[in-house]
Amino acid sequence: MKVPFLDLSLQHKALREPALAALAATYDANRFCLGKDVEDFERNFGAALGYPRVLGMNSGTAPLHVACLAAGFGPGDEVITTPFSFIASAWGVSYSGARPVFSDIEPGTYNLDPAKLEAAITSRTKGLVVVHIFGQPARMDEILAIAGRHGLFVIEDCAQAVGARYRGTPVGLAGDCGTFSFYPTKNLGGCGEGGAFVSRLEAVQGIARQIRVHGSDRRYHHDIIGGNFRMDGFQGALLNVKLPHLSGWTERRRAIAGRYLAGIRLADTRLPAQPEYGRSVFHQFTILHPRRDALREHLAAAGVGTDLIYPVPLHRQKCYAGLGYSPGSFPVAEETSATCLSLPIFPELSDAQVGHVIASVNSF
Ligand SMILES: *Cc1c(COP(=O)(O)O)cnc(C)c1O
Questions:
Q1: Domain that holds residue 282
Q2: Is residue 2 part of a domain?
Q3: Which of 15, 131, 205, 347 could anchor a disulfide with 199, C-beta 3.0 to 4.6 Å?
Q4: Cα–Cα distance between 313 and 130 in angstroms, integer?
């Protein structure tokens, strides 16, 4: 039996007719940049997931960039984030001219370890980019207590956590703002690039809205330096077709994760932690094993696709060599990168395929 790591064609085949009809309507109405489809999506996304205000943007990196500009980060500032994430979690900080500072993760959730955070704070620290990695919320109460003591601006990178909740509250509302990605492989994926910015704070959302469209809220009047971070109409139209399916897809991901958690019984394997405070949406199901590469080969031979997410932590990336970190700087992130293996977890997997993944892991 073959189990691909990810197959987006099944979802797109199933939605082909409504997707193409929505695209045709947008095309015929010439609604190409922001416009009705994007406004509808912003309203629908907010209503479905519990956000008071939403701004559609043109990637998941865009709202991180906008957030760092809205926060006022700049040269001389330090902003703390996790070394175990996709590189874009740090890009906004770098684009703003501030310096990314990393702080180690905790085992189990693979998220920022609040117990280690305070040691990374200096007089230059202005903010935090908290990532809810693999769809598992980070420990926001502890993190926000530290941020509050030091007056830090908190950005939540929710790119992998659409639909996830922290103590019942949608991720992205505890900090000053939250960011989403609709890259095709995300839990809610567009057909191209897309992202969103949310905030519980009207003032923060207002600045972000201006930055999104060239620093202006009146045509040809530019009060602040902005950019072009607009979502295009086609993505808004497609996301409106997909959004009603998200909760079903999420339940299916959680059911598959439940089977993996109950069924995987391979010695020396560490399964992702399920702390009671956070409802994960399982963007990835990532296990740790000391003989990860051999396990991966064994699974490939059994027809099971896997991926290494992430094989190199951010502080060990060449682009950040100038920050002065060395091997051993963040032992938990480094061990996680060296031993992590992500298993297939997309909603269209059949029960038989899930069973085959479990049996194949256990037979290693
Ligand atoms: C995908 C992702 C992003 C960036 O999103 P793009 O849409 O690719 O720009 C940012 N942060 C995390 C954690 C991501 O997984």
A1: 246-362
A2: no
A3: 205
A4: 15
276 and 212 housed in the same domain: no
The pTM score is 0.98
Between the CA of 88 and the centroid of ligand 1 the distance, in Å, is: 6
How is residue 46 written in tokens?
A: 């907010």
In this structure, the answer to whether residues 237 and 253 fall within a common structural domain is no
Query: Does ligand 1 come within 6 angstroms of the Cβ of 159?
Result: yes
Q: Ligand 1 mean position to 159 CA, how many Å?
A: 5
Token representation of residue 256: 């598959």
| Per-residue tokens: 101 | 């500072």
**Residues 6+ away with beta carbon under 8 Å from 338:** 292
Cβ 92 under 6 angstroms from ligand 1: no
Segment 178-207, tens digit of pLDDT: 999 999 999 999 999 999 999 999 999 999
Q: Quick one: how many helices (H) and strands (E) in the chain?
A: 13, 12
Domain count, the chain: 2
Q: Residue 59 CA: which ligand 1 atom is closest?
A: 7
Helix pair 88-96, 61-71: axis angle to 10 deg: 40
Asked if residue 128 is part of any domain, the answer here is: yes
Ligand 1 proximity of 195 Cβ (cutoff 6 Å): yes
What length does the chain have? 364
Domain identity same for 167 and 214: yes
In the chain, which stretches have pLDDT less than 50? Answer: none
What average pLDDT does the structure give for the chain? Answer: 98
Cα–ligand 1 centroid distance for 226 (angstroms): 21
**Ligand 1 pocket member 280 (CB < 6 A):** no
**Ligand 1 contact, 181 CB (< 6 A):** yes
DSSP letter, residue 198: E
81: left (phi over 0), alpha (psi -120 to 50) or beta: beta
In this structure, is residue 3 part of a structural domain? no
What residues contact residue 183 under an 8 Å CB cut-off, 6+ apart?
Answer: 59, 60, 159, 189, 190, 193, 194
Does 142 lie in the same domain as 121? yes
The type of residue at 348 is E
